[in-house]
Amino acid sequence: MDLIFFDLDGTLLNESSVISPFTKETLGLLKDKNIAFTVATGRTMLSARTILQGHDFDLPQIYTNGVTIWDPLNSQLTLENLLTTAEIEMVVDTTLRQGVTPFVHAIDPSNHFIYHAAPQHRVERELIATHYAGTEAKLLPLEVLPKDSQVTNISMIGSEADITNIWRSVNYHPNLVTYSGPAIEGESYRWMDIHHCLASKGAAVNTLKKQLGASNIICFGDGDNDLSMFQLADESYAPQNAREEVKEAASAVIGHNHKDGIAHFLRERFAL
User: Fold this and answer.
1) Do 31 and 121 have their domain in common?
2) End of a domain among 196, 222, 245?
3) CB 223 within 8 A of CB 242
4) Which of 68, 149, 162, 272 shows the greatest Cβ crowding within 10 Å of its Cβ?
5) What pLDDT digit, counting tens, does each position of 87-96 carry?
6) Does 188 share its domain with 203?
7) Do the Cβ atoms of 181 and 190 come closer than 8 Å?
8) Residue 269: pLDDT band by 50, 70, 90 thresholds?
9) Between β-strands 112-116 and 36-39, what pairing exists: parallel, antiparallel or unpaired?
């Protein structure tokens, strides 16, 4: 059984951060041939839900770089390697000292919560108003975060200098891992996401491989958070726009995500 895992941003999604009509048609052709596929993304369930809606992703899905696995058919949520109270406090204190607002993501089977301090910059206020406020998440003050919350990750956005300083402090914590990249809000801003170091796409892919009885794992990704699943995949493919270390680790480099590189590859690979 072939089982395909798609990263989203920079991989399956196009320059508008959506699944293009051509890619959607290709996914339908995969389904017609009974070729199994799902997603393995750094996004939270919350931010990916509208993107995947209507695209027949009915197998268990990997979110937050492996912290969360969601089975849509059984409405089953699996959480692994959540952040501890001490780890949360360390990240929050470091972030606030740098003048950046932390967004603490917590989840239960029926709700997604985002706890945050008062926004300190325009880009943070716009993130709340244009993105978070339009989702199903419950936005709450950071000071009411319960001690027993199931915190999956902490995200933030800020200037490159501020995010780099936070990275220097947090990245050396033995239990934490950080991922960062340019923000869509402008070249002068970067986003960063922090979660427990034991969580990874690779570990979650291995879990689903066993659960679904797959014999051939095929992975697509463009970022350093995809390397863990590349290491265990039977086939791994990086789009032309991927980071150099990801392309070097891949079985092959395929077309650019802005040009439906994955869809064109799949049609040839599976004779769709």
Assistant:
1) no
2) 196
3) yes
4) 68
5) 999 999 999 9
6) no
7) yes
8) very high
9) unpaired
Residue 185 pLDDT exceeds 90: no
CATH of residue 192's domain is 3.30.1240.10
Residue 253 corresponds to which tokens in the numbers above? 């480099």
Q: pLDDT digits over 95-131, tens only?
A: 999 999 999 999 987 889 999 999 988 989 988 988 8
Per the structure, the complete domain to which residue 106 belongs is given by 85-196
204 and 263 share one domain: yes
Q: Which residues contact 92 (CB under 8 A, 6 or more apart)?
A: 102, 104, 117, 142, 154
Return mean pLDDT, the chain. 94
Domain stop point among 196, 218, 248 = 196
pLDDT in tens, 167-177: 999 988 999 99
Strands 112-116 and 103-107: what pairing? antiparallel
Q: Are residues 167 and 215 in the same domain?
A: no
Q: How far is CA 221 from CA 19, 189, 202, 228, in A?
A: 15, 23, 12, 10
The number of folded domains in the chain is: 2
Write b or e for each residue in 219-240: b if 16 or more Cβ atoms lie within 10 A of its Cβ, otherwise e: bbbbbbbbbbbbeebebbbbbe
* Cβ count within 10 A of residue 208: 22
Q: Taking the model in full, what pTM does it have?
A: 0.90
